[in-house]
């Protein structure tokens, strides 16, 4: 039994769930229609370029969680799952997850998107273990701040190492599937790094190092 780790956005999904949540909030009129759209698009571009200021991003991305009640957020998330996520769940991604499940591997998503957004997506995919950015909650409401180490770039490795320290698993025989060069720190840690529909930078690295390259979109 090995650990099978999956990135989420543009790996098991054919969309970026963080950006899609921002678009959904704009459609609901829940955020400033000009400033938030500009920031949402800019942060996505920065992420793709590998220049994302994670703290600046989280200040903007988590603020709407603090501005609305948990009940309103939960209702919105149900709509979000139906309209923005379900159409983008990749069938071949589900088949890949199922193959690892059949082998008896421990399934995990490690994502830089926050748990509010990704928790229900992981549940929908039948993946119990999730490492994500943790939005802070106080007295049952989100504060708009993150708790702990953000699971982004090297932070993914740190958070995974924390998780492993509390489990009886190791990275022996481990797999990690990702589309993004931002995930190189974790791809370099596992025994079986797999580039999934990779961005140009990751494709170049994968080809140079002889890593497996697959597509879940064909």
TrEMBL record:
<dbReference type="GO" id="GO:0046872">
    <property type="term" value="F:metal ion binding"/>
</dbReference>
<protein>
    <recommendedName>
        <fullName>Histidinol-phosphatase</fullName>
        <ecNumber>3.1.3.15</ecNumber>
    </recommendedName>
</protein>
<dbReference type="InterPro" id="IPR006385">
    <property type="entry name" value="HAD_hydro_SerB1"/>
</dbReference>
<comment type="function">
    <text>Catalyzes the dephosphorylation of histidinol-phosphate to histidinol, the direct precursor of histidine.</text>
</comment>
<dbReference type="GO" id="GO:0004401">
    <property type="term" value="F:histidinol-phosphatase activity"/>
</dbReference>
<dbReference type="InterPro" id="IPR050582">
    <property type="entry name" value="HAD-like_SerB"/>
</dbReference>
<dbReference type="InterPro" id="IPR023214">
    <property type="entry name" value="HAD_sf"/>
</dbReference>
<keyword id="KW-0378">Hydrolase</keyword>
<keyword id="KW-0479">Metal-binding</keyword>
<comment type="pathway">
    <text>Amino-acid biosynthesis; L-histidine biosynthesis; L-histidine from 5-phospho-alpha-D-ribose 1-diphosphate: step 8/9.</text>
</comment>
<keyword id="KW-0460">Magnesium</keyword>
<dbReference type="Pfam" id="PF12710">
    <property type="entry name" value="HAD"/>
</dbReference>
<dbReference type="InterPro" id="IPR036412">
    <property type="entry name" value="HAD-like_sf"/>
</dbReference>
<comment type="similarity">
    <text>Belongs to the HAD-like hydrolase superfamily. SerB family.</text>
</comment>
């Amino acid at each position: 039994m090995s650990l099978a780790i999956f990135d989420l956005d543009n790996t098991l999904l054919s969309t970026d769930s963080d950006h899609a949540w921002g678009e959904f909030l704009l459609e609901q009129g829940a955020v400033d229609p000009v400033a938030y759209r500009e920031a949402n698009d800019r942060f996505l571009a920065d992420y793709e370029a590998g220049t994302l200021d994670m703290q600046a991003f989280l200040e903007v991305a988590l603020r709407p969680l603090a501005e609305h009640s948990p009940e309103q957020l939960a209702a919105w998330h149900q709509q979000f799952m139906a309209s923005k996520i379900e159409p983008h769940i990749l069938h071949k991604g589900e088949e890949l997850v199922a193959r690892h499940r059949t082998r008896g591997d421990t399934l995990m998503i490690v994502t830089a998107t926050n748990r509010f957004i990704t928790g229900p997506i992981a549940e929908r995919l039948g993946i119990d273990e999730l490492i994500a950015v943790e939005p802070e909650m106080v007295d049952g409401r989100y504060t708009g701040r993150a708790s702990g180490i953000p699971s982004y770039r090297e932070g993914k490795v740190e958070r995974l190492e924390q998780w492993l320290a509390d489990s009886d698993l190791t990275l022996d025989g481990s797999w990690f599937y990702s589309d993004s060069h931002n995930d190189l720190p974790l791809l370099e840690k596992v025994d079986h790094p797999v580039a999934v529909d990779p961005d140009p930078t990751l494709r170049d690295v994968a080809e140079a190092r002889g890593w497996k390259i697959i597509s879940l979109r064909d």
